[in-house]
């Protein structure tokens, strides 16, 4: 079988070495512009359109991340970019769920125990005790209950705070109050104190973190966006922070990455910025998962993690 690999920022020796160890019989090469030789599988992250052109033999494209928005956006704008018979397969967890649980847990604890405010007081040299937030009303709402959001919701239960979850279709997660579908969105949002976003970026979810959404949360709520930048209406966040409707936000993803130097988020005292690190693609786990799926496909067996183009994730 022939496999092409493309990831601009990867340690190529390490990736290719691991893939060759798992798939010793594969003919594996790094794709470079101008390479139109046949390939059965592609393993890619943010690949140029050209990589996909004229590849009727391509059976599957493995996306080196959970989010497939970039690749689907190309297909939406230029239909037919992806070979018609190729499955698009996303990473399923591969160590990202634990990273997301850690990131969300840190944010919720930081806000619950007011460490962000103590940091600000310390900068002013002030010794001042603040009243504790009531844990039982410090409701965390997790938007998206998929591979990552589901684990985050379960992980947050351990903090003893009420946890709500929101998905497109109904789910059951013990201890989590689950809402599903657009008609239950307001019930999910009403009174939430920390909103954690783990939705995929699709036409339906773009801009969901907006003024209307913020207005339904508890007064002085917190936002944690670890999904995609276009979920957030940046100006609505600034307005909600300035009005006091939101107390603070932690943002890991942005409309433009790296976040432009003149963006207001850099200097806003109540916005925490991290550079898209909440859950990184772990090489070894990803190699093992992708190689296992390639072996299964080669045997004609079904695999999980296939993206539904119609749903957009
Ligand atoms: P996933 O398994 O596809 O789960 C998506 C969840 O969102 C599902 O529960 C789905 O509902 C729900 N959903 C989708 N569209 C919806 C809508 N219109 N209304 C309500 N719920 C909707 O995705 P995942 O693996 O958990 O990853 C989520 C996202 O995290 C990725 O798409 C990516 O953008 C982001 N991410 C970010 C980083 C980072 O480092 N910042 C790392 C990894 C991933 P159903 O369950 O009903 O289908
Ligand atoms: C990272 O953002 C991913 O989608 O895996």
TrEMBL record:
<dbReference type="GO" id="GO:0016616">
    <property type="term" value="F:oxidoreductase activity, acting on the CH-OH group of donors, NAD or NADP as acceptor"/>
</dbReference>
<keyword id="KW-0520">NAD</keyword>
<protein>
    <submittedName>
        <fullName>D-isomer specific 2-hydroxyacid dehydrogenase</fullName>
    </submittedName>
</protein>
<keyword id="KW-0560">Oxidoreductase</keyword>
<dbReference type="InterPro" id="IPR006140">
    <property type="entry name" value="D-isomer_DH_NAD-bd"/>
</dbReference>
<dbReference type="Pfam" id="PF02826">
    <property type="entry name" value="2-Hacid_dh_C"/>
</dbReference>
<dbReference type="InterPro" id="IPR036291">
    <property type="entry name" value="NAD(P)-bd_dom_sf"/>
</dbReference>
<dbReference type="GO" id="GO:0051287">
    <property type="term" value="F:NAD binding"/>
</dbReference>
<feature type="domain" description="D-isomer specific 2-hydroxyacid dehydrogenase NAD-binding">
    <location>
        <begin position="108"/>
        <end position="278"/>
    </location>
</feature>
<dbReference type="InterPro" id="IPR029753">
    <property type="entry name" value="D-isomer_DH_CS"/>
</dbReference>
């Amino acid at each position: 079988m022939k496999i092409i690999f493309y990831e601009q920022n990867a340690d190529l020796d390490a990736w290719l070495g691991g893939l060759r160890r798992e798939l010793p019989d594969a003919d594996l090469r790094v794709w470079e512009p101008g390479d139109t030789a046949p390939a059965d599988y592609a393993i890619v992250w943010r690949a140029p359109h050209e990589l996909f052109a004229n590849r009727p033999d391509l059976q599957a494209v493995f996306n080196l991340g959970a989010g497939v928005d970039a690749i689907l956006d190309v297909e939406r704008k230029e239909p037919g970019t992806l070979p018609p018979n190729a499955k698009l397969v996303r990473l399923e967890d591969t160590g990202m769920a634990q990273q997301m649980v850690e990131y969300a847990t840190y944010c919720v604890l930081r806000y619950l125990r007011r460490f962000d405010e103590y940091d600000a007081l310390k900068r002013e040299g002030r010794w001042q005790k603040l009243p504790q937030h009531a844990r039982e009303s410090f409701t965390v709402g997790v938007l998206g209950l998929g591979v990552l959001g589901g684990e985050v919701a379960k992980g947050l239960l351990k903090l003893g705070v009420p946890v709500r979850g929101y998905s497109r279709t109904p789910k059951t997660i013990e201890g989590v109050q689950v809402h599903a579908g657009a008609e239950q969105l307001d019930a999910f949002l009403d009174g939430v104190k920390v909103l954690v976003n783990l939705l995929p970026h699709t036409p339906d979810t773009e801009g969901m973190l907006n003024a209307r959404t913020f207005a339904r949360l508890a007064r002085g709520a917190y936002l944690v966006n670890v999904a995609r930048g276009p979920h957030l209406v940046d100006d609505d966040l600034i307005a909600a922070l300035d009005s006091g409707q939101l107390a603070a936000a932690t943002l890991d993803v942005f409309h433009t990455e790296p976040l432009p130097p003149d963006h207001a988020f850099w200097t806003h005292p109540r916005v925490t910025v991290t550079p898209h690190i909440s859950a990184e693609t772990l090489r070894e786990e990803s190699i093992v998962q992708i190689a296992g799926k390639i072996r299964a496909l080669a045997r004609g067996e079904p695999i999980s993690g296939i993206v539904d183009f119609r749903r957009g994730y």
